[in-house]
Design a protein that fits this description.
α1 links the parallel β2 and β3. The longest helix is centred in the C-terminal third of the chain and has 27 residues. This protein has one domain: 3-Layer(aba) Sandwich (Rossmann fold), CATH 3.40.50. The strands form 2 sheets. Strands 3-2-4-5-6 form a 5-stranded parallel beta sheet. Strands 1-7 form a two-stranded antiparallel ribbon. The protein contains 10 helices and 7 strands. It is 35% helix and 8% strand. It is of the alpha/beta class and 306 residues long. The protein starts with 15 loop residues before the first strand and ends with a helix.
Length: 306
């Protein structure tokens, strides 16, 4: 069946969401599909997964994760995460389709699923030697097919009334800028430990921006797909699962700091170990954003990025 294409979205939307769900409609369990950001990797400035510091599954009150926010209003709220450091949207054994399959196989299905993937689809690609720095990245069509492979499964298996919240992916060129500002040590670290060399190995700002533009294209496609699933214009969501995203348009459209994909990271929001992953402050901002754009949540998006 023909799929809906990505749609243009207004870049100037700044809004406040209220708690719209009744107590009886709130979920009692969440799961998530994600990579090292959702695993809280390096968030404590230690080189390992720190799931207690994760924006989605964390238990540290300093982060105030999605899980922590739900447990404040839903007694006995549970979670069963499926995120894995290193996961891609497309490739590998822990891609979105694989994680979605595991979510669908859980003995008690969640009513809320968070998705944050895509960074490794960029960072795992080799640096381009051509005039286009994004030449070795997945095409938008290929990346979108990986997204659909997971969303199709969730639309088919989750209980009626469930919500799937798909977060936009951060621009790796913005993470580069934050790390470059953080310490003279960061570029050395990137080289020594081969951290996202597709962008950290690019000395030219215009070429890094080419990679950032491809991330924008992924996020535009992501939003188009989410809206197609939510409205069932693609015929894949006949059971009425709610699909939402934080993406409101690109930095080029003037939508700075309205989504994860347009957040202008600064040096105080990333860790000092790999200078690329969000630290506890960055994780807290992401948790705030996720809650503000969650139909069950509340809050002002601009207040998350202060």
């Amino acid at each position: 069946m023909k799929r809906a294409s990505a749609v243009g979205l207004s870049a100037a939307i700044v809004f406040t969401l209220g708690v719209t769900a009744s107590a009886s409609a709130l979920p009692t369990k969440q799961s998530n599909a994600g990579d090292s950001i959702s695993q809280g990797f390096d968030a404590n400035d230690h080189p390992s997964d720190q799931p207690q510091e994760s924006w989605v599954q964390g238990t540290d009150s300093a982060v105030h994760s999605v899980y922590s926010r739900y447990i404040e209003i839903v007694p006995n709220f549970q979670q069963e995460p499926e995120s894995v450091s290193g996961a891609e949207m497309i490739g590998g054994t822990n891609n979105f389709a694989a994680q979605a399959s595991r979510i669908c196989s859980q003995s008690t299905l969640p009513q809320h699923v968070s998705v944050l993937l895509g960074g490794n689809d960029v960072c795992n690609r080799p640096k381009s030697s051509s005039g286009d720095a994004a030449a070795n990245l997945y095409s938008v069509e290929t990346w979108t097919n990986g997204l659909r492979a997971g969303l199709d499964q969730l639309a088919a298996c989750l209980p009626q009334g469930a919500t799937v919240q798909v977060m936009s992916m951060p621009r790796v060129d913005q993470l580069y800028s934050a790390g470059h500002d953080k310490s003279f040590w960061c570029p050395i670290t990137w080289s020594l430990f081969n951290i996202c060399r597709v962008v950290t190995g690019e000395g030219n700002a215009s070429r890094r921006a080419q990679i950032g533009q491809r991330v924008d294209e992924y996020n535009d496609a992501l939003a188009g797909e989410v809206h197609a699933y939510d409205a069932n214009t693609n015929g894949q969501n006949s059971r009425g699962i709610k699909f939402v995203t934080d993406w409101q348009g690109s930095i080029a459209d003037g939508a700075n700091n309205t989504s994860l994909g347009t957040h202008l990271f600064n040096k105080n929001e990333i860790n000092i170990v790999d200078c690329f992953h969000p630290n506890k402050s960055g994780q807290r901002e992401l948790a705030c954003l996720a809650w503000a754009t969650n139909p069950d949540g509340s809050g002002s998006i601009p207040a998350c990025f202060q």
